[in-house]
Amino acid sequence: NYQHQKEILKELENFNIQNLSDVNNLNLDLFKLRVQHGLKSFEFKEHYEPLNQMHGIHNYFHRLLSIMPMKTEKDFEVMVTRLKALPRVVDEIIELMKNGIKSGITVPQIAMLDVPNQIGRQLPENIEKSPFYHLVNNKNLSEKMKDTLTLAIKEELYGSFTLLKNYIEKEYIPACRTTIGLSEITNGRELYDLKL
Question: Which residues have a Cβ under 8 Å from the Cβ of 16 and sit 6 or more positions away?
Answer without folding.
Answer: none
